[in-house]
Write a structure and sequence with these properties.
Layout (H helix, E strand, L loop, with lengths): L6 E5 L4 H12 L4 E6 L2 H11 L3 E5 L5 H15 L4 E4 L13 H29 L2 E6 L12 H21 L4 E6 L7 H8 L3 H9 L5 H13 L4 E2 L4 H11 L1 H17 L2
Parallel strand pairs: 1-2, 1-4, 2-3, 4-5, 5-6, 6-7
Helix pairs in contact: 1-2, 1-8, 3-4, 4-5, 6-7, 9-10
Length: 265
Amino acid sequence: MNLTDRVAVITGGAGGIGAALARRFAAEGATALVLADLDGAAAEAVAAAVGPLARGVAVDVTDEEQVRALVADTERRHGRIDVFCANAGVSTGGGVEVDDTGWERSWRVNVLAHVYAARAVLPAMLARGSGYLLHTCSAAGVLTAVGDAAYTTTKHAAVGFAEWLSVTYRDQGIRVSALCPQGVDTPMLADGLAAGHLGARIIAASGAVLSPDDVAAAAVAGMAEERFLILPHPEVADYARRRAEDPDGWQSGLRKLVRRLRATA
């Protein structure tokens, strides 16, 4: 997809990857950008920095009625939505001990928000015979987020849902991409490091932490080629192959890494 003159909605648009996508889409010639975030004031600040084509709004993506209202308002203002980026995400940094509230929040933000977006935007996209869904799913969705059970589980579900959408609707003009970065310099990573989360420590120790702008550039390149799986960290493809070919060996390697990091904690 060429982003020139496109109308795009980006959730989680107040910072990190979402804000970087907004900046990059604007540079690519988008005609209108709607940045939705639970923190509406922060989304408005990012929109102001991007320029007059952008608008920030407060939206809770776990509330389907708010997502529907976001879509309806954008379509009313701009006539259509060409690209919907379901980008909002949360992590827990914990395992099975995380309480039901944490698991439920992960499920609603990382998975159901994607479902709500698809329900809202697909009817008009299908009627036009064109549209693009970009889902930020994380490399955790094709590998494992060591130290975060809920994140791993929900991101695998997010990739599965995106794949289902692609298989089901591509022949009707709908393009779907699962954006799966690994380590990214975002508040989520910083908060995880501050809390001592194992997964964040592994990412930081890898030395392969990208900037959000790097991820946005990879996303735009992948969308231009209409690739389903967009991997800003190309090594993730190799990891995924090794995991598929030798799951026991892959898990053994991860356990060794965990033991080493725990020993140095």
